[in-house]
């Protein structure tokens, strides 16, 4: 392999990432059914989104319109090409293909939309990187089956996976099964269990046990998808996808260190199973100690071994820290909603996310040591309030700094530590609806979209300073990370 000064291969996959439900809009067009994202309202900066029982009159659902990518994708893909993207990570909205989720045959209009999108990418030699399930399960599977509480949903998911693998076998090579499958290790947060698994927990239920059962069905579904995909096209690269937020001990007290170790085990058992094909010993012991009687069959365990992933995709936004509490067994009582503490050594974004570029190098090394698989950074970025000037510019030097510092650490991990990284797709290619808050004003993109939190705005697109900066980074294959031209560019609308 021929390497550049930064240690990056010449065919390094630079690009950008999004998810279908956050930008497509057209929530009821082309036969699409409702998804879990379609019944979530918008929230403020520090609130949780409300989950309503179906679509209710008088409520505002920001994903229904997104940024209208469903209709405007040709101009957006053209802008991605102008930035020099080698790849584009998006997801397929499951409810476009199987509107209810439990049909036997896919919806042709939904399949045809992704044909058009992938063809448009290929026109510019942009490789699609496609997530099968990115927080957008058909809502009918929630109301009818309780989401991934039910083993039946494994069958529906694999039917969906088979349909899209067959349809796009010559257009898509890189796949990811479940987006941030490990987010739900934070089981006390209603948002994560709902978006990952379509589950709402009753007050008298043990949310942790519910999460382990759903998580098990999902790792099995993932392993089946890997097997089906490889049969359809042996060249497919099918990865797992986790949210990589390393959990540091708050101090060097041994109990804090033990607690942080357990926190890492609890966050990353999903990828342990998807990569290794077996459950870690601590977790089977833990199930016994807790008295959990999970539905895990011998056939499941055999499938996990047969359906190991080809690579590991992960998002990296921030690091966490945890501290042990008085009078507890730190390895038996980790609960993410309760046990994270503020790391005073790193700054925070406006949404309280701890910004820690060196944590990315740490993460790359930790994942490489643990899994020995190619790694793909499929999300990394900062949500910020951007100001559009009167002449349609956005001077987002804070975004450039965030990405600059993280790419620098990635390159150190590759060059100095020998970590195999396949590519880098920052979040997000273009401004989209925030997953956690439903805000448009929590912007991540290189391209500004004129849309406000209440849905008003012209939807016009404008290039930010970071657009030109990233274009230059890609053109130099990551060798020059410095801002170009003082960050001032002619206004542009497309
Ligand atoms: C990840 C998700 O959690 O982070 C994305 O995969 C999400 O869907 C991104 O948008 C940023 O989070 P948020 O909540 O700020 O949109």
Care to describe what's here?
The protein has 494 residues and is of the alpha/beta class. It has one domain: Alpha-Beta Barrel (TIM Barrel). It is 38% helix and 12% strand. It is built from 15 helices and 13 strands. It has helices spanning 20-23, 69-83, 94-97, 108-123, 139-145, 152-167, 190-197, 207-232, 254-276, 281-290, 298-306, 336-339, 357-371, 397-415, 465-475, and strands spanning 13-17, 87-91, 127-133, 174-178, 237-243, 247-249, 311-315, 320-322, 340-341, 375-379, 421-424, 447-449, 461-463. Strands 1-2-3-4-5-7-10-11 form an eight-stranded parallel β-barrel, surrounded by four helices. It has a three-stranded mixed beta sheet with strand order 6-8-9. A two-stranded antiparallel ribbon has the order 12-13. Helix 2 packs parallel to helix 4 (108-123), helix 6 packs parallel to helix 8 (207-232) and helix 13 packs parallel to helix 14 (397-415). Residues 485-494 have low confidence and may be disordered. Bound molecules: 6-O-phosphono-beta-D-glucopyranose. 6-O-phosphono-beta-D-glucopyranose binds next to loops.
């Amino acid at each position: 392999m021929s390497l550049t000064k930064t240690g990056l291969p010449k065919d390094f996959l630079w690009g950008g990432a999004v998810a279908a439900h956050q930008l497509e809009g057209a929530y009821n067009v082309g036969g699409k059914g409702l998804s879990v994202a379609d019944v979530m309202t918008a929230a403020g900066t520090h609130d949780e989104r409300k989950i309503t029982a179906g679509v209710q009159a008088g409520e505002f659902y920001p994903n229904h319109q997104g940024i209208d990518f469903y209709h405007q994708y040709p101009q957006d893909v053209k802008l991605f090409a102008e930035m020099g993207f080698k790849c584009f990570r998006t997801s397929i909205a499951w409810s476009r293909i199987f509107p209810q989720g439990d049909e036997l045959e896919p919806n042709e209009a939904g399949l045809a939309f992704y044909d058009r999108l992938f063809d448009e990418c290929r026109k510019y030699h942009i490789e699609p990187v496609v997530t099968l399930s990115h927080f957008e399960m058909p809502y009918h599977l929630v109301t009818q089956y309780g989401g991934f509480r039910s083993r039946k949903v494994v069958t529906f998911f694999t039917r969906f996976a088979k349909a899209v693998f067959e349809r796009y076998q010559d257009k898509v090579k890189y796949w990811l099964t479940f987006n941030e499958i490990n987010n739900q290790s934070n089981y006390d947060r209603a948002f994560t269990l709902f978006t990952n698994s379509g589950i709402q927990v009753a007050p008298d239920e043990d949310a942790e046990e519910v999460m382990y059962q759903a998580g098990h069905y999902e790792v099995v579904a993932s392993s089946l998808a890997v097997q089906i995909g490889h049969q359809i096209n042996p060249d497919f690269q099918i990865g797992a996808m986790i949210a990589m937020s390393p959990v540091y001990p708050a101090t060097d007290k041994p109990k804090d260190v033990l607690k942080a170790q357990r926190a890492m085990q609890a966050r990353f058992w999903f990828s342990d199973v998807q990569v290794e094909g077996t459950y870690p010993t601590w977790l089977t012991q833990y199930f016994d100690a807790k008295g959990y009687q999970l539905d895990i069959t011998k056939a499941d365990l055999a499938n996990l071994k047969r359906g190991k992933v080809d690579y590991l995709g992960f998002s990296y936004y921030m690091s966490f820290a945890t501290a042990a509490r008085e009078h507890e067994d730190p390895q038996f009582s980790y609960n993410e909603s309760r046990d994270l503490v503020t790391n005073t050594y790193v700054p925070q974004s406006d949404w309280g996310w701890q910004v820690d570029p060196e944590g990315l190098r740490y993460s790359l090394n930790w994942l490489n040591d643990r899994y020995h698989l190619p790694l793909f950074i499929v999300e990394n970025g900062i949500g910020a309030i951007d100001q559009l000037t009167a002449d349609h510019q956005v001077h987002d030097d804070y975004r450039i700094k965030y990405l600059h510092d993280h790419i620098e650490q990635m390159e150190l991990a590759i060059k100095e530590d020998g970590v195999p990284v396949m590519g880098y797709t920052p979040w997000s290619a273009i401004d989209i609806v925030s997953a956690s808050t439903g805000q448009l004003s929590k912007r991540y993109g290189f391209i500004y979209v004129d849309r406000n939190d209440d849905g008003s705005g012209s939807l016009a697109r404008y290039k930010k300073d970071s657009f030109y900066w990233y274009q230059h980074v890609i053109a130099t294959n990551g060798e020059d990370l410095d801002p170009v031209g003082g960050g001032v560019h002619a206004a542009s609308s497309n």
